[in-house]
Amino acid sequence: MHPSFEFVPNEIQQSIRTDRLLLRCPTPDDGQTYYDAAQNSLPELRPWFDMRQEETLSGCEGRMRYAQARFLARESFEFLIFQPNSPQLLGRVGLYAANWKTPSFEMGYWLRTAAYGQGIMTEAVTALTHFALYSLHANRVAIFCNEKNIRSAAVARRAGYPLEGVLHNDGRHYLTGELYNACVFACTPQTFAPEAAT
Q1: 84 and 22 Cβ atoms separated by less than 8 Å
Q2: Residue-wise pLDDT tens digits, 54-97
Q3: CA within 20 to 30 Å of 81's CA: 61, 114, 156, 175, which one?
Q4: How do beta strands 140-146 and 163-172 pair?
């Protein structure tokens, strides 16, 4: 019999604070706020994400309920990004594809268009990486992004994720069917060195 290395924490914090940001677990009441942020940013997000669910308020409400349920079930950890004392949603960042035997996760994120250029997503990704490595004891966190998504790749690099390689013809765009290549960035407790910490 092989030993089991699986470790799932009993208590997982549902909010993270940084110098400028509050990251917190979604609730069903966040549907309208999430919808407003998505509508503000759909033209910039559609090239990279399947945003069909975000096109309706009911879809956004359903997504918030689903995200909260998966968080409580320890299946994924999605956080909404706010500035303290502001109700405006700036974006989301999350840990997905949880493998508790390693443990390892994949990270995804998007930012409201009006919040571009302020270092907000780099700060959020850095904070969530710290949470994954040191609260969830992850041995690996990976970020996958379309090779053409220069902005997303820049966030990964600034947050301390070296490029591991490029997966050619890794998928098809959900609207156009066009094949795309995916960049793979990853960090471990041994390699985590975000620019913000240097």
Answers
A1: yes
A2: 999 999 999 999 999 999 999 999 999 999 989 999 999 999 99
A3: 175
A4: unpaired
Please answer whether residues 30 and 80 qualify as being in contact, where contact means their C-beta atoms are separated by less than 8 angstroms: yes
- pTM, rounded to two decimals: 0.91
Collapsing DSSP states into helix, strand and coil, what is residue 75?
Answer: coil
CA–CA gap between residue 88 and residue 145 (Å, rounded): 26
Q: Residue 142's beta-bridge partner residues?
A: 106, 186
87 Cα distance to chain centroid: 20
Question: 141 with 95: CB under 8 angstroms?
Answer: yes
Query: 């990976």: which residue's tokens?
Result: 142
- Pull the structure tokens for residue 143: 């970020």
* CA nearest to 136, candidates 74, 184, 69, 187: 74
Alpha helices by DSSP H, listed for the chain, are 31-45, 57-72, 120-134, 150-158
Nearest 5°: the CA angle 163, 89, 66 is: 80
Would you give the DSSP letter of residue 4? Answer: P
Instruction: Decide: residue 49, CB within 10 A, 0-12 exposed, 13-18 middle, 19+ buried.
Output: middle
- Residue from 3, 4, 12, 41 nearest 105 by CA: 12
